[in-house]
Amino acid sequence: MTGIRGARSGGDIPGRDVHLSGSGGFTLIEVVASLVIFAAGVLVATELTTRLSQLVRDAGIRSQAIVLAQARLDSLQTVPFATLGEGLVEDTTELQGRSYRVLISVVPDGFRLVTLDVVVTPADPPGPEHRVTTFRPAPW
To answer: What is the pTM of this model?
Structure first.
């Protein structure tokens, strides 16, 4: 019966109450591997942040180009219809230190209608164009 009591208390079960030295910590390889994984994650997060800030800056410049084109178009709306002659005007402007070409065209579309078109494109380096178009009827 003493063997049964010993089995219940864990005295006769092999492998129980065995203490290994060094089983409570991490090895150097585990620490180095975790630091490499952490550093890679930090690098990816930094790259994503840099790219995101560039995209936000580009979106701001595009918004300013569209506002510029709309402002030029609005100024053409105030010009009397009789003085709007057919033609093409090219201008340059600067937005956030970058040069842009502004192309304004006035094209008659029939007897009493004119197409007003404003295109803003980056001058150097070339990039996407931003176009605003409207039709202006002659007064009755």
So the answer is: 0.62
